Amino acid sequence: MIPVFTGAGFRVIAPDLFGFGRSDKPTEDAVYTFDFHRDALKALIGELDLKNITLVCQDWGGLLGLTLPMEMAQRFTRLLVMNTTLGTGDAPLSAGFLGWRKWAAEHPDMEVGKLLGRACPHLAADERAAYDAPFPDVRYKAGVRRFPQLVPDRPNAPGAEISRAARDWWSSQWTGTSFMAIGMQDPVLGAPVMQALRRHIRGCPAALEVAEAGHFTPEWGGPIAAKALAHFLSY
């Protein structure tokens, strides 16, 4: 997606969350909390003094990112949202997600590249290897292990209250331009979840349904980015 955005003249900032990519990787599981990740994103936005932000988010990028604009609404103007949700804790988690959470808990040394390759069969061997590269051994996978367990699953879970506030804000106060794309092969955060989210995003148009895309929608994202840009620039 990044070359499409930069080719159109936009600045792109793609932060690694702590524990992923080239970021620092604390080895203690307890370090990784909803607020730890969210506060890091808030600090990044403040440190770089970002303005006129188009929030592009998927999965945890949405669980965390969608809670940010309500606290700094003057900085955000557009939203491109893909296969994610808000962790409000007031609705049961899907059977598909609970199955993934259980599997992740039972496989603390999960093979990241193999998982991405299975979900994104068009990835080449070197691309799958790039997903493995940040994790030389199990010690560095604390952030990976923790994420499935951090999704709020009850009203008083960490992150749930602020996610409910964000849901209300998107429904009533968001005034920016939105674009939604759905990877239709996603068994966890697919069309039903995304259509429910769309109802809470004020002014969000009908979603772009990407028939062949799975959960990791950005891996199919070049055409999505181009269509989102065309939509944004038409306003």
Brief overview:
42% of the residues lie in helices and 10% in strands.
Give an account of the 3D structure:
With 235 residues, this protein is α/β, with parallel strands linked by helices. It is 42% helix and 10% strand. It contains ten helices and four strands. The chain has helices at residues 2-7, 34-48, 60-65, 95-106, 112-119, 125-132, 142-150, 160-172, 191-198, 221-233, and strands at residues 53-58, 76-82, 177-183, 208-210. Strands 1-2-3-4 form a four-stranded parallel beta sheet, sandwiched between helices. Helix 5 packs across helix 6. The protein is globular. The model has no long low-confidence stretch (mean pLDDT 97).
Described by strand count, sense and barrel closure, the largest sheet is: 4 strands, parallel
- Which strand-content bin applies to the residues? 5-15%
Low-confidence sequence ranges: none
Estimate percent helicity: 40-55%
